[in-house]
Amino acid sequence: MKEILLKGTNICKAFPENGTETQILQSVNVEVYKGDFTIIMGASGAGKSTLLYALSGMDSITGGEITYKNQKISSFSEKQMATLRAKEFGFVFQQTHLASNLTLLENVTVAGYVSKTASPKEIQERASRLLRQMRAEKAAGRLPSQVSGGEAQRAAIARAMIGNPGLLFADEPTGALNKTNSEEVLNLLSGLNQNGQSILMVTHDAKAAIRGNRILYLEDGQILDELTLPVFKETEAKEREETVTAWLSSLQW
Amino acid sequence: MGNKVIFKANIKRHRGALIGVFILVFLACGALGTVLNVWLNSGRYVHGELTRAGFGSLTAWVSGLTDARSLANEMENLPEVSSVEIQNLIFSNYTVDGQESDSEGQLILYHSEEIRYRFFTDDLHGYQEQPEAISPGEIYVSPSLVSMMGLTLGDEISFLIARSGRDKVFTVAGFYEDPFMGSSMIGMKGFLIGEEDFQEIRQVIQSSGIDALAREGAMLHIFAADPDTMTSSNLNQTINDNTSLSSYVEFIHSENAIAGFMLILQNAFAAMLMAFVAVLLFVVVIVLGYSISSGIEADYSNMGMLKTIGFTGGQLRSIWLAQYLTGILGGMAVGLAAATPLSHLVSNTTLTTTGIYIPAHLPIGWCLLAFGILLGLLMGFIWLKTRPIRDIAPMKAIRGDIGAAGKIKVSRTPIWGKHLQLGIALRQLTTGKRRYAGACMVAVLLVFIASMIGRMDSWLGPDGKGMMDAFNPADHDIGVQVFGELPMEEVEDAIRSYTDITDDYLLAMPNVAVNGMDYTANVITEPERFHILEGRTCLEDNEIVLTEFVAANLGVGIGDTVAVTGDSGSGEYIVSGIYSCANDMGDNVGMSREGYLKIGQDAPQLWCHHYFLKDTTQKEAIRLALENAYGGDIHIHENTWPGLFGIISAMQALMVFLYVMVAIFILVVTVLTGSKLLAAEQRDMGIYKALGFTNRSLRLSFSLRFAMASLLGSAIGLILANFLTDKIVSAAMKLAGISNFASAPSVVSVLLPALTVTLLFAGFAFLTAGRLKRIDVTILISE
Ligand SMILES: Nc1ncnc2c1ncn2[C@@H]1O[C@H](COP(=O)(O)OP(=O)(O)O)[C@@H](O)[C@H]1O
Ligand SMILES: [Mg+2]
Questions:
Q1: Which of A113, B162, B196, B461 pairs as cysteine with B208 (C-beta 3.0–4.6 A)?
Q2: Lowest pLDDT segment from A51-55, B27-31, B163-167, B572-576
Q3: Which residue of chain B is at minimal alpha-carbon distance from A98?
Q4: Cross-strand bridge partners of residue B176
């Protein structure tokens, strides 16, 4: 039996719109296990991002409850939430969202300083190491506006990893990248997972989804189905893609 | 039609900025209208009243003559004089509640048929009918006695008519407007009394003979035959040369000099406020400039779109001009409307120091002229600042390329692990340089003006010592003048029973004529005590020192020779130096005792003994003790003068007003620039939040940025004030006869404005950043 890391119970999320409310998440129940590479799939507009932000506490929810490591984080104060983000959660966005006036290295170190998980000196060493690991060390001293999309996204992963997070969230991290860069980013994420990093990733791309060992399918604000796979191996990529595509078409994807 | 729709939409969109501009323009224009009102109206009113009330081109106060009419006739016979009017009066010292007057009072016989004076209502908020006659025992006084001696309606004033207790006590029945001596800047004061009392006092004086303390006299209002060609000093000289006036005259002043005395306060404060308003207007321009460029940045792609559907750059600029004009014109209109009640307020609150009720009807013509010029300048500025709209290339803008406006240049300031907040703040600050420059410049201006006024205030000091030193020819703690036969040793022993006398010298202030012009001479036993500005003091008995103003009037300089006439002869003196003494608006000269005695008579009561005390806090106790012991035989004065309290309290009111305005301005500027900055930095804020920064730390970091920007500005403002205050203020002080202004900055007066401005910026920024709570990480959610 796998250890439950993050758990959402009856999560509801509605956005106010022209006086009425639009219900985007309708009582979603979801569990994320430690060590897993969990994927959330679904059509564009299905509510994947909304669910990810709700689960990570980045956005408020209108109903339900979220626990992380058996702590009820949905009723955390702003300050507790900030600490959680700094120490336990890492986040990778589709648009990279690096602070525009900090260099790639500074983006990583600042995140590390905030996490207070090590001394400033150790953070600096760890940041350089991570950037080397993410193969972004050549651009480390440059500003986000001066680097390629791939370099920026690899630095963003380094930034998310600097505090040794318990769970790494990623919202379509390859959505804005070309094929080569996408592959590289996905390889890095797989590598992290193989070293024990728990990951929760949103994607609508089957090629990205095959990296996961558990895939959830979201539609109309609910989890319709899930697919469990063995741990990803480069050599089995082809077969996995076929399995996932077949599963998706059974869900009228 | 299209223009109108865009205009309306823009007004809505830039509501915040326009409201900010409105408030700033309103405050600046309200203050401007009030200053113009006070300045123009008080000048016009004082001159008008002097003419209406029948004060001549020259007015001479005379005493010791039996028949004023024959002296008047003597003068009227001169072709240069058209007529001379006489007002009979009695010179007398007086006390209010045990407090002795600084100068002699003038009891003036009131004739209701002359319609010379206007009377105030008892609450001092307007005028009332003049009384038919003044009843025995009643007296009308100038409202400035309220601030000078704490007088109120129904109080008693006692005039020392003759020795051995022949005092005459009056009850204050009301206040009248004295356009002549009413200001608290003038020591001598006029009192209106009725016929019976006046005759009674004359009788007492005449029957007391040598024991009389009060003296009969008159004011002679001398009208020039041709005031346009005849200067008052020429007229004065002609009269002195051809009549016996100089044997009777106590002092003589031209209408302009009197108007000058009456208007010192109003002019000084109008000048200071005007400087402040100028600074506020600069701030308005800075805020306007900032608001326009950040507004254009935010609307860049929008305007690109409008251009693709056919709007020209000129049209768009006109719309922007129009939208800012709504804020500016609105502010001006409300400011203009507010100026009238504000002027009323100023009139009411200054009446007890200026002695006149400054009319509060706005000088509309001048205001419109000033506002029109201002409007023209602002419109020109807006037109210039909206130039970038012309260059927006439609397609590029829509694609989100906001051209030069959006390019940021990042300075690599250090980011430390230990002081993360500071590092981040510094980086954001240096990246958003242009955006924070507004706050910085506003801080420069506000700190500059606040620090300048603070330096003046500390020069003045809590008891006005700075001002007194400027007025006195030489420093002292207390001055004692005895009449009668009182031995000085006895007085000094009385003083020593309180504290030691550390030093002393003698000073007399007789009248002399220098090259035919009347001046007060400060005659001193130790001429090295004069405040010398240039050259050296009058060490030899044939030397004299002049103030800058006298030197300029007479057209002489150091080394020149002047003819000086005293009451026993005349002689030639060499000007050995220029000294500073603002008494009589600088119309005075300095001589040594030996020098003066060659042309003037000596008498013990001529001399005032000036003492320096070991413990200066005993001054008041010594004064009271001496007055109780010797009464009318002694006159004690401290190094102060009642009008000073008018200046000090006005200065304090100005400081309060200044700091309130500064606070409001900073609030508006911070909210305006702050919300723009937050909007521009909101993505970064979201990122920092996602990384685990708390709202509080982001808010702190934001206010830290404002603090740093304004601290830099404050520092520049302080440096400017340090170099410019003395230059600017000296130039202004010269108008009041004070030629030795050198600010004495205390730590408080230097640091307070900078600290206040920086803290206000940081505090308001922290409040503005309260909206960070609403900036959610969700702004990062990709579409
Ligand atoms: N802040 C918001 N206000 C209103 N509606 C929103 C907001 N954010 C997302 N939505 C709506 O919620 C739905 C799901 O969005 P999202 O979770 O981003 O979908 P996706 O599955 O593509 O990530 C969409 O219809 C979107 O329009
Ligand atoms: Mg999405």
A1: B162
A2: B163-167
A3: B687
A4: B119
| CB pair distance less than 8 Å for A114 and B693 | yes
Q: Which residues of A touch B685 (CB under 8 A)?
A: none
A17–B contact, CB cutoff 8 A: no
Question: What DSSP state is assigned to residue B134?
Answer: P
Give the atom of ligand 1 at the shortest distance from the alpha carbon of A43: 21
* Position A116 in a domain: no
Among A95, A103, A110, the residue with its CB nearest the CB of B691 is A110
**B399 has pLDDT over 80:** no
- Domain CATH code at residue A53: 3.40.50.300
Residue B596 CB partners (closer than 8 Å, separation 6+): B508, B510, B512, B521, B523, B566
Rg (CA), chain A: 18
Q: Three-class SS of residue A238?
A: helix
- Kindly report whether the global pTM for this prediction surpasses the value 0.95: no
> How many Å lie between the centroid of ligand 1 and the Cα of residue A240?
29
- Is any Cβ of chain B less than 8 angstroms from the Cβ of A143? yes
Q: Is residue A133 part of a domain?
A: no
Contact partners, residue A245, CB within 8 Å, separation at least 6: A206
| Chain-chain contact of A79 with B694 (C-beta, under 8 angstroms) | yes
Structural domain includes residue A132: no
In this predicted structure, the answer to whether residue B779 has a pLDDT above a threshold of 70 is no
Residues A126 and A117 sit within 8 Å (Cβ to Cβ): no
Q: Is residue A45 part of a domain?
A: yes
**Of the candidates B415, B696, B780, which has its C-beta nearest A97's C-beta?**
B780
**B366 within 8 A of B36, measured Cβ to Cβ:** yes
Residue A232 at interface with chain B, using a CB cutoff of 8 Å:
no
Query: For residue B779, which ligand has an atom nearest its CA?
Result: 1
Per residue in B60-111, pLDDT (tens digit) is 999 888 888 999 999 999 998 999 999 999 999 898 887 777 778 999 999 8
Domain parsing of chain B, residue ranges: 55-261, 420-470+642-783, 471-641
Number of structural domains, chain A? 1
pLDDT of res. B405:
46
What is the rounded CA–CA span in Å between residue B46 and residue B263? 8
The answer to ipTM > 0.85 is no
Among B residues 403-422, those touching chain A with beta carbons less than 8 Å apart: 408, 410, 412, 415-418, 420
Which residue range forms the structural domain that includes residue A236? 4-97+169-250
Q: Do B690 and A87 touch (CB under 8 A)?
A: no
pLDDT at B407: 54
